[in-house]
Amino acid sequence: MPVQPVEKIWMNGSLVDWADAKIHVLSHALHYGSGVFEGIRAYETPKGTAAFRLEDHIGRLFRSAHLYHTPIPYSQDEMAAAIKETIRANGLSHCYIRPLVIRGYGEMGVNPFDAPVEVSIAVWPWGEYLGEGALEAGVRVKISSWKRNDQNSLPPAAKATGQYINSVLAKMEALHGGYDEAIMLNQHGQIADGSGENIFVVRKGILLTPPLWAGCLDGVTRDSVMMIAQDLGIEVREDNLVRSDLYHADEMFFTGTAAEVTPICEVDDRMIGGGHRGPVTKEIQGTFLSAARGEVERYSGWLSYV
Ligand code: PPE
User: Fold this and answer.
1) Which residues pair with 264 in a beta bridge?
2) What does pTM read for this prediction?
3) Which of 41, 48, 109, 152 has the largest count of CB atoms under 10 Å?
């Protein structure tokens, strides 16, 4: 999806013009994938622009950095303030937010320890991640022949840039096959997640999602949806799923910051439920989007006003 340029990007402590937010070609992260990042959305609410679960996303950024021995030279509060400052500087009422922490330029070779840590925050308006109309019409997905990164190779619990080359393989395969998105299995053949989304199945009124140890990212949207479902009186279970659990699902959907709650209408050329957004998906999706837009008092604690 093309990025729509805005005015400013925050780089290492100050706002620079969009076109000047550059790094050297010998930056360590470009060669070895030694970066960690986040994806956050800010929504327009009746009380102004608010970032959704900002502290939780920043917390995960710091956990990812910890796993990769990457010292972030700012506190979590300073990162939150910088994110808000960047949104304000660009005058955006709603946007996608991409904080990025990389090992920068100065040293070559796999050893990252002496490469400087560089931090940036970019924001831009981003529409429906899996295509215009996907939130209503749903998407067609394919189970990938590529397995999700293993826990002992590239731990899926971290959101590191280099790990995403695994998702890139799966995404390309799905697109080449004429599908919208890929679902990845772990090394044991259990469902992990999408190339950039967590996955949920509705079967006989129960909401099922793979546990974190299946190899999915600890999604903030996943957590929000589990809470919303419980509040709606829907039973939620974290359990391992195999591919036939998907083929026999009554409803299915992806969750993610970018994807929000996107219905899945087809898996491996098998129609799911009626082939359109099911009633449970619709209710959860509606509540999630209302919460993010500041319309549900119960979830007001999820919003950080900019
Ligand atoms: N699994 C993966 C592999 C993943 O990348 C994401 C987020 C999720 C699950 C959902 O996590 P959360 O956003 O906390 O609910 N993917 C981000 C990056 C997408 C991209 O193309 O870049 C996102 O949605 O921001």
Assistant:
1) 139
2) 0.98
3) 41
